[in-house]
């Protein structure tokens, strides 16, 4: 008897949106913090009128060392791999938190997680399985009501 009201509550769109927001936050936090460990900061470029433009991340020497000697990524130069991973670990979390292009950002996290699992830390499968499950949930359901995507009807998942 108590199960039906509980099931009804959990199946509401609002509760699902809270779960989606929590998943977006969880993945964003993990990947953002990982990205932060790879950089010393961001380069600054001076524009013509004295404006300052934020540039590319400045990678730590330790980041390049890890990509060259420990991460064993095939078919890609370690410097390019480090830059791509660092940019993705900063851009994808921002998209996830905003719920903007949620499914694409979750797909990016999914692919990064597979690469990490297969080539970098194959023994960390319990953690990676969690990331994969959350990213799959976001790819299937989208960002929910608390996402920028929700306000664009053509992007909504029903």
From TrEMBL:
Localization, per the record, is: Cell membrane
Q: Which UniProt keywords apply?
A: Cell membrane, Membrane, Transmembrane, Transmembrane helix
Q: Tell me where it mainly resides.
A: membrane
Q: Where are the transmembrane segments?
A: 94-119, 131-152
The keyword Transmembrane helix belongs to this UniProt entry's keyword annotation: yes
- The domain of life is Bacteria
CC annotations in GO = plasma membrane
Q: Per UniProt, what is the membrane topology? A: Multi-pass membrane protein
Q: Which InterPro entries match?
A: DoxX (IPR032808), DoxX-like_oxidoreductase (IPR051907)
Q: Which residues form a coiled coil?
A: none
Q: Name one Pfam family in it.
A: DoxX
Q: Does the keyword Nucleus apply?
A: no
Q: Which family does it belong to?
A: Belongs to the DoxX family.
Give the PANTHER family listed for this entry. INNER MEMBRANE PROTEIN YPHA-RELATED (PTHR33452:SF1), OXIDOREDUCTASE CATD-RELATED (PTHR33452)
Kindly provide the name given to this protein in its UniProt entry: DoxX
Source organism (scientific name): Vibrio quintilis
